[in-house]
Amino acid sequence: MKYKRILLKLSGEALMGTRQYGIDPVRLAEYAEDIKQITDLGIEVAIVIGGGNIFRGIAGASNGMDRVQGDHMGMLATIINGLALQSALEDANIPTRLQSAIKMNEIAEPFIRRKAMRHLEKGRVVIFGGGTGNPYFTTDSAAVLRAIEIEADVILKGTRVDGIYTSDPEKNADATRYESITFNDVLKKGLKVMDTTAFTLSQENKLPIIVFDMNTRGNLLKVISGENIGTTVNI
């Protein structure tokens, strides 16, 4: 296997499946099966998940809500998604721990770096909920931060698109996919991979990002195996 320890970033919207909002249990079960394929091979897996299927702080702010309050609501949405994903993983017989950047001891462990790394070493999947615990930071930033802290080999950004394109492939049929691209070229070309804070943090720490289609069954295993799936962003 090309990678030993990964940070998988999933969007909240991905959990909606074919629904308009909320959580699709079928999609959750599919993700759990794909994750089990790689944990059975001894890959250490940490996960950061967004909350956009339930609430987006920035969307609330655009409708007149206080931004800090909205972001706190978004953090709670990621905890809900984390609990749902934890349940699906445990249904697939994968030992899982949910750690939260916000204290809620009855629901999740507090985020403690050494404890998270110990869970990973023991073969447990660790889900990081609550974002960074601070407003004005996205779950992309949380994903990069946690990946650096746990010394992950790579960030795998699971999306509904199979990589990074020259332009939006859903709007432009002539868009072509990059197999690999440098951090500098992403910035020069103005391509959207992550928000600028998260992307810069990844670049500074020389942490590669692979953007791939998580909704195609078996793709996660292919990425871990080193197959040319998605787009790799590297130094």
Q: In the CATH classification, which architecture applies?
A: 3-Layer(aba) Sandwich
Range of strand content: 15-25%
Question: Biggest sheet, in brief?
Answer: 9 strands, mixed
Helix percent reads 25-40%
Instruction: Output the CATH homologous superfamily.
Output: Acetylglutamate kinase-like
The number of distinct structural domains comes to: 1
Low-confidence stretches are: none
Average pLDDT works out at 94
The coarse silhouette is globular
How do the strands and helices of this protein lay out in sequence?
Blueprint: E1 5-10, H1 25-39, E2 44-49, H2 57-62, H3 67-91, E3 96-100, E4 109-110, H4 113-121, E5 125-129, H5 139-149, E6 154-159, E7 164-165, E8 177-178, E9 180-182, H6 183-189, H7 196-204, E10 209-213, H8 219-224, E11 231-234
Parallel strand pairs: 1-2, 1-6, 2-5, 3-4, 3-5, 6-10, 9-11
Antiparallel strand pairs: 7-8, 10-11
Task: Describe the protein in words.
The structure is a single chain. This protein is an alpha/beta fold and 235 residues long. The chain is built from eight helices and eleven strands. Helix 1 (25-39) links the parallel strand 1 (5-10) and strand 2. The mean pLDDT is 94.
Quick structural summary:
With 235 residues, the protein is of the alpha/beta class. It has helices at residues 25-39, 57-62, 67-91, 113-121, 139-149, 183-189, 196-204, 219-224, and strands spanning 5-10, 44-49, 96-100, 109-110, 125-129, 154-159, 164-165, 177-178, 180-182, 209-213, 231-234.
Question: What would the keywords be for this entry?
Answer:
about 240 residues; alpha/beta; Carbamate kinase; nine-stranded mixed β-sheet; two-stranded antiparallel sheet; 8 helices; about 35% helix
